[in-house]
Amino acid sequence: MSSAQLRHENGATTTTKPKPNPITGTEIAAEFSHHDLTVARINNGSFGSCPASIISAQQQWQLQFLQQPDYFYFNTLKPSMLKSRTLIQSLVNAENVDEISIVDNATTAVAIVLQHVTRSFFSSDFRPGDAAVMLHYAYGSVKKSVQAYVARAGGTVIEVHLPFPLSSNEEIITEFDKALKMGKTNGARIRLAVIDHITSMPSVVIPVKELVQMCRNEGVDVIFVDGAHAIGNVEVDMRDIGADFYTSNLHKWFFSPPSAAFLYCKKSDKVSDLHHPVVSVEYGNGLAIESGWIGTRDYSAQLVIPEVLELFVNRFEGGIEGIRRRNHDKVVEMAEMLVKAWGTELGTPPEMCSSMAMVGMPACLGISSFSDALKLRTHLRVTFKIEVPIYYRAAPTLEGKVNPITGYARISHQVYNTIEDYCRFRDAIIKLVNDAFTCAVLSN
User: Fold this and answer.
1) Coiled-coil stretches, from where to where (predicted)?
2) Cα–Cα distance between 52 and 49 in angstroms, integer?
3) How many CA atoms are closer than 13 Å to the CA of 436, on its beta-carbon side?
């Protein structure tokens, strides 16, 4: 479904008219002129980006509240939040708007779902020793949340270790199947599966629909997809994916200001005891309403979501789908340019990339630890004004290989990026290689 087509609860579809004159390169540059233009920012994946037109629209929401807070609270906030939720419902093909809550970020969504799971352990619905399955490459805060909530409640945590580099979805499916079987040993049950849609580091598009179906077949009670990087980056369709819960940040790849995310909760008896971690006056009125008011704060990032579509996204041919297709094609093109220049390899085939790609770095750089990767990232920022995350691939997977690649750069492509950003990165690494640089020379 095109981003300009909004499906409503009654099944009808409304199409917003595309802009008669698609956005130009000059207009894109103006929208992001507030970026530090001296920096080659090829790291949209970490914090996202917000156009100037949306920043201006957000400020109007902030002023509305400050001008007359009482009127805004009683007359504006709830209907405006509902408008944002309805738009998200359409974008992600949820069945009902009540399945969509807006929260600050994916980390908050994780807390909501895992607190719900923890209560099932405390109520004896789940037993000590029952398992939670998640990918080893799950985001750090998600892994710590699983430990903080599920493990402390008595659950056993099983991490699915994936090889890297990856060559196919079959490798992921095989390892996930092993973990599901492990979780059911000695009569235990798998109560929770946390599945990334796009892993953060290393960045890989995961076959979520297939893994969700595997969980269904194995009787997993709660299936939660962490799509923090997903909306605006890959296709996101709730009915097609079929998970119980799904979250995605709107400030990473959908051009919203920080911070805004949605949490999808499939309608079922599983969500009867689902609550926002911050208890406010709306407690007990359903998660969507609870999340819409957690006390006096700035809600503008959540209310400006319709303007993100109207004022920016729909100025591009094909809307958000057109943007993500072009970003994917361009990041693959830039990644292939870099590996050719450096004589290295991609971390995954192009079809497993989103708008981010893992690019092997020359082995002679001597990336031998996570600390080295972080120090090299800092060196690139300070010395060359290049912002890009570096992933260290731990040594145990490298046995028998001569001069193995131990470092991969995660490059992003967003509409503001230019080929010069990637050429600067290419040339910086070539200079380091020619200068016989190694990470060992970097101070602690």
Assistant:
1) none
2) 10
3) 0
